[in-house]
Every structure is written in structure tokens, then in C-alpha cells.
Structures
1.
Amino acid sequence: MVIRKISKKIYLKALIITIFIFILGLILGIFLSGERAKTIGEFSRVQKLDYDSIQLQFLYLGTLEEQNCLAVMKTLEENINTLNNVRVKLEDYITQSVRDNSEFTLLKREYVLAEIRYWLLAQRSKELCDIDTVSIFYFYSNEDCQNCKIQGTILTYLKDIFEEKLLVFSLDADFDKEPIIDILKSAYDIKETPTLIVENRKFEGLITRDELLGVICPYYKTKVKGCENVR
């Protein structure tokens, strides 16, 4: 009888500890998800302010002489690099969290729109200020796409080399919560991932580093670091 009483006490303690650990884990998970959402929210708000600032400078530039393009070029380059850093962090947060979470869906939509706004601004700045850059739309998928991971790594490598001279805009081809994605997929007839749109030229499937260099480098009007050995 004593043994049974001791066993019951042990089981009861084990049950209490198990419940405590479960609740603690649940609270911790909610807390971490909340922290991720809070962090992405801060990124999104900062990104919007950055874009509003650039847009205002761009509008002001339109009233000035062409020589004032240098000011906007510098700001555009700095914020494009910021956008790329936010992209990496955002994708990391989304990967670690529940994908059907409404908060994350909203934040991802905001980020996609920020990317498109930057692209439009970059295109207009290129026309007005003759900025020597190359823009790439990178359509990828998180679902069973090993080549997408490889392509992403190649693009990150090239971005590190070309820096502000290469503008990479990554778009999740499976993200159907933002209509602009479907519009772009229809415009470029995107049927598979990865797909790259390099200055309106489409390349389906995995493109190697050397192949991509051969596509990118001819677009530059001046000598650019990374293109020295490309013919």
C-alpha cells in the first residue's frame, strides 16, 4: 500500500510538471511569435518611411536640374541595400512561423508592395538620372523547389559583389494574398520556379553564376567590379 501511495504521488508530480512544461512552452511560443510579428512590423513601418522619404526626394528632384540626381542616387542605393537586408530577415521569420498567420500575411503583403514601389522608383530614376544598374525579378517557391534555394544563394553571392549596381526583387510565386503577384506572373508568363526576369528578359529554371554574369554584365555602361573576366 505504501508503494502504491508513493507511485501515485510520483505520477501526480510528473503530471503537474508535464502540464507546467506544456503551458510554459505554449506561452513561450506565443511570446516568440509575438516578438517576430513585432519585429517585422517595425521593419515594415521603417521601410514605408524610407520609401516615403525617397518618393518625396524624387518629386522634389523633378523640379530641379539634372545635376541634382546624385542626391537621389545615393539615397536610392542606401535604401535598396536596406530592403535586401530586410528581405533576408523577413524570409527567416516567415520560415520559422505559421504561414497562415494573418499578421504575417499582412506583413508579407506590405513587404511585397514595398519591393514593387522600390522597383518602380528605381526604373524611373534610371530613366531620369541614367543610373547604371541592373534589375532582377526573382520568382521563387518555398514548396519543393531545391533549385530555388540554389538560385537564391547565387543571387545573394552576386548581390554581395555588385552591391548597389544589382537590384534583386524576390517574389514568392505561391503567395496569392497579394494581387500584384498574379499580375506580374501573368505579365511575364511565369509557369515555373525559379524564374528570373533580368531587365525584362525571362530565364526559366536554374541559371548558374557564370551564365547569369554573362547576362548581367553587358547591360552595364561602365566598368563594374565582377565583370572583368566576362566576355
2.
Amino acid sequence: MSLASYIGCNVEIPLTDPDSNDVIVFGPCFSDESKLEIVQEFQVQTSYTYEVSTSWGIELVEWQKKEKKEAKKKLLALCSIMEGYLNDGDYFELFSCWVGDEDKERMGKLKLNHFHIDEICISERTLIRIEK
């Protein structure tokens, strides 16, 4: 099984070249168009939905020390990229889950704008709204 991360936003984001070595890649990796439609219907409240590939989903949980350190870098990189697309007051939503769990009930919801990366915990099936 694979942990996939999805974002929802109200601006169109260009897909990344599939052969890119970027830390954050916008486009299919673990899922397909049907999974994006499910995430759009059940999880996010935005116009556009994308899979965000980082070779593994973004999950910040205490018991995964090495993975948590990598996920922090990925989340900060994603926020930095999205800052270039969003206007003040805009937001994007991040949702990570095991492939096949896209329509399952959320385990949590978190709203962030200015945050300290070391103080947040993001488990699977948590919807995070990050505001600019």
C-alpha cells in the first residue's frame, strides 16, 4: 500500500514533468483520475484537486522519527510553492491517506496560517487547511 497526498485549491497548478527530481511533484504517482474525483467529492472544498507526490505521503506523526523529519521538509516545500500561487486570504487543503481510503471519514481537521512546524501533528486522513 502507498500513502498518497492530495491538495485542493482554487487556482490551477501546472503539472510537473513526471521525470522531474523535484521534492514536490504535482501529478499522478500512486493514484489516478478516479481517486482525484473521490477526494474532490468527499474531502476537499475547492475547485481543483491534485495528487502531490513526494515519493511518500506527507504525514507528521511522533512515532516515525526519520519519516517525520522528511515530511516536515516536504510540507515546508509545498507551502513555499503554494505561496507563489495564492493571494492573501487564499488557502489550500492537504489530505493524505492510504490509496483506497480517499472516501473514508476524516480522522481530523486542522486549520493553519502561521505555524511552527515542530508543534503540529498530522496523521493519515487529516484534512489541513493552510491559509496565506
